[in-house]
Design a protein that fits this description.
heterodimer, A: alpha+beta, four-stranded antiparallel sheet, 8 strands, about 50% helix, B: mainly alpha, Arc Repressor Mutant, subunit A, globular
Chain lengths: ~250, ~190
């Protein structure tokens, strides 16, 4: 180890480092040696002391006014730097504001785009709905206005005297509709269900949902001498009609 | 190893307090001017060098690391390098070449004519020229001992022993305690 230190000290690297003429790599090496070996550190410190002493030997009286010239230059530097700092701060604030507002507007535009998509979709759905409903209404009108369409008034039997419905049947076009106008109130756990007898079989036409459907025509399967029924069934509907609960009989 | 004054100056320098430069100039100005003059060998140039060096010191204040070098070592490096750069830029700019020549090492006579250089002469005269030359080559010319041996045509062993004696003589003239005392008084 001693040998290693001696070789290092012989290379003059320490002296070059002292004067600041080493390369970056050499500086790292020297700093490592100084940190690791007290002997090297001591030599370096002595060299620094000697450098200062030797340099002081060559000290020269500085000319009058040089100090002020130097201080003036430094003040000029400082105001320049301050001006730059002020400019940098202003620029930073401006950049931050810009970034902030950009982010805000970007977000807003994203939101608007999303909303736009939603609104467009809604419009499309509405359009499709309207078209199909208009189509329905037109078809119904054509049927109802047809001279060969016959109209039947239907009344409920004794179980539901207030039940009133109108049925339209067109044997030429083989179409029939029913419009339930009024239904007596039922307990919560019961509902009206509609049935049709087609070729001897009972077909479920679904539950009649309250009076909301007041103006709605319901299509019925058409058959010669078809019979439709309205029954009272437990809430949610039934798979087969409860015959004793028939409240209306539609017989064309 | 740093004195109170050094620490105070470094703090001011890192706070970007202008007072740092004032204090540095008072305590190291003459020495650094001497360093600059030693390299450029012209008063006007030396003044330019000193100005530029102080601007660099001011700008680089944050990069000074007291664990790596004494304050003076750091100041010396900046001043010496600025002076050498000045010479290089001049020699490329103009035809009259100014070089740091080895012959300058022997050229101790020029400045001795002027009265303001007298006290240096007195101090320097306490060290024999043969030691001065070696110290000069090492500290100002930035030569390695081997380079000094080659340039001065003196065997390496002799360079080493002269350097050792020269340094010892130096310490005799300025004990480090004597040097630090006025600085300490100054802060108090």
């Amino acid at each position: 180890m001693k040998e290693k230190i001696r070789i290092f000290l012989d290379t003059d690297l320490l002296e070059k480092y002292l004067l600041g003429t080493t390369t970056l790599e050499e500086s790292h090496q020297v700093e490592r040696y100084i940190a690791m070996y007290p002997e090297v550190r001591k030599t370096y410190e002595e060299l620094q002391e000697n450098l200062e002493t030797f340099a002081k030997l060559h000290a020269l009286k500085t000319p009058e006014g040089l100090k002020n010239r130097i201080l003036e230059r430094i003040r000029a530097q400082q105001t320049g730097r301050r001006r730059f700092q002020r400019f940098a701060i202003a620029a930073t604030i401006a950049a931050l504001l810009f970034a902030g507002s950009s982010y805000f507007f970007y977000n807003q535009s994203q939101n608007l785009q999303q909303e736009n998509t939603i609104v467009n979709n809604k419009i499309k759905t509405l359009e499709a709905d309207m078209r199909s409903q208009l189509e329905d209404v037109r078809n119904q009108f054509i049927v109802l206005n047809n001279p060969s369409t016959r109209k039947f008034m239907i009344n409920g039997n004794k179980k539901a005297r207030e039940l009133k419905a109108v049925a339209y049947v067109n044997p030429v076009k083989k179409l029939s509709y029913i419009n339930v106008r009024n239904l007596p109130n039922l307990p919560e756990d019961q509902c009206y269900q509609m049935w049709a007898e087609v070729n001897g079989e009972m077909v479920n036409l679904g539950v009649i949902k309250d009076i909301q459907d007041k103006d709605k025509l319901m299509a019925l399967p058409y058959a010669e001498k078809a019979v439709s029924y309205i029954t009272i069934e437990p809430k949610g509907g039934n798979n087969t009609p409860t015959v004793q609960n028939i409240v209306a009989n539609i017989n064309f | 190893m740093s004195t109170l004054l050094e620490r105070h100056i470094v703090e001011l320098l890192q706070e970007q307090n202008e007072k740092a430069i004032s204090l540095l100039y008072e305590h190291y100005g003459d020495t650094l001017y001497g360093v600059a003059f030693k390299v450029v060998r012209n008063e006007e140039l030396a003044q330019d060098v000193l100005q530029e060096s102080f601007v660099k010191i001011w700008k680089k204040g944050n990069s000074y690391d007291s664990t790596k070098a004494k304050l003076f070592t750091w100041l010396f490096r900046i001043t010496r390098n600025t002076a050498i750069d000045k010479l290089r830029s001049l020699s490329t700019k103009s035809d009259k070449e100014i070089q740091i020549d080895v012959s300058d090492v022997y050229n101790l006579g020029v400045e001795s004519i002027r009265p303001e250089f007298m006290d240096i002469r007195q101090n320097l005269s306490k060290i024999e020229p043969k030691y001065q030359i070696v110290l000069d080559a090492l500290f100002f010319q930035g030569m390695t001992q081997q380079e000094a041996s080659d340039e001065l045509e003196i065997p390496l062993g002799t360079i080493k022993s002269r350097l050792k004696i020269g340094l010892r003589e130096l310490r005799k003239i300025y004990g480090s305690g004597v040097l630090l005392l006025p600085m300490i008084i100054n802060i108090l």
